[in-house]
Structure formats: structure tokens, C-alpha cells
Design brief:
153 residues, extended
Length: 153
């Protein structure tokens, strides 16, 4: 547990107040978009922390084992749908990163072709695809390694 300069660990004794808000069908649509874009912003901020070694956030990266452990033991539709929605947002954001092997990389190459009017060379595309796959495999190795380390502890 990380402790701040005042010696606090960020634990509250008092339970925060939970408010329930009801939406009509028409008001739920903009509220859903707002919540989605807020979640995307939060996820991008957290993703930056993973690539900042001083935060040690890379230790929290997990694979399907960690995903399975996120779900509560007792069945709850709200929790289930909320977790599935967040996983969907996380996958969408990851897929749009400008890594050559993902859709975001293909978007970058298409934009390059639109701007310059010429296609990148086949050799360049080949090398960048390999680099992209190495990045993805490295991320998978990190995720599985973290999950296995957590299971051993």
C-alpha cells in the first residue's frame, strides 16, 4: 500500500453516500454517451500510468485470469453488465492505438496514404507489422506473467 506524505493510505471509515438517478429513454442516451466518454478518458489516463515505470502500474496488467477474478462471487446483473461494458471500452481503446498490427495502425497507414498520395513500401509495412506484433506479444507476456505471479503468491 502506498502512503502519501502525511502518512495516510486513503482508507475512509465512513461509507460514501450512494445516489440513484433514474433516466427516461430519451435522457438515457446522452447520459450513456457521457458516461462512455468519461470511462474512455479515465481508461486513457490509467493507460498512461502503465507506461510510467515509477508508478509500477504495469504490475496491475492482467489477462483473462484477472478478468475472471474481477467478477463478484454472487451473481449481480448490474455488476456483470458494468464490467462487460468496461471491458468492451478497454478493448475498443486498445484496438485503436496506433500499433501497426491493430486497427489503429491501419488507420495511421491509411491516413499517411491519403496525405502523401502514395502507399508505404511493402518492406516498411512488413517491418512495422512485426514490430506491432512484438509489442502485442510483449503485452500478453506481461499480462500472463503478472497473473501467474499473483496465483503463486
Amino acid at each position: 500500500v502506498q502512503i502519501d506524505t502525511a502518512g495516510h493510505i486513503g482508507v475512509f471509515i465512513q461509507q460514501p453516500e450512494i445516489k440513484t438517478k433514474t433516466y427516461t429513454v430519451l435522457s438515457a442516451i446522452p447520459a450513456g454517451f457521457s458516461k462512455t466518454f468519461s470511462a474512455i478518458g479515465d481508461y486513457l489516463q490509467n493507460l498512461k500510468l502503465v507506461f510510467t515505470p515509477s508508478t509500477e502500474a504495469y504490475k496491475s496488467v492482467g489477462s483473462f485470469i484477472a478478468i475472471g477474478q474481477v467478477f463478484p462471487e454472487a451473481w449481480d446483473w448490474y455488476s456483470f453488465i458494468s464490467i462487460i461494458a468496461m471491458l468492451s471500452i478497454m478493448l475498443a481503446v486498445m484496438n485503436l492505438l496506433p500499433i501497426p498490427a491493430l486497427d489503429g495502425g491501419h488507420i495511421v497507414f491509411t491516413l499517411y496514404e491519403m496525405i502523401t498520395g502514395r502507399k508505404p513500401s511493402d518492406n516498411f509495412l512488413y517491418v512495422t507489422q512485426i514490430i506491432g506484433m512484438l509489442l502485442i506479444f510483449g503485452l500478453m507476456f506481461l499480462a500472463f506473467g503478472n497473473d501467474i505471479a499473483r496465483l503463486i503468491k
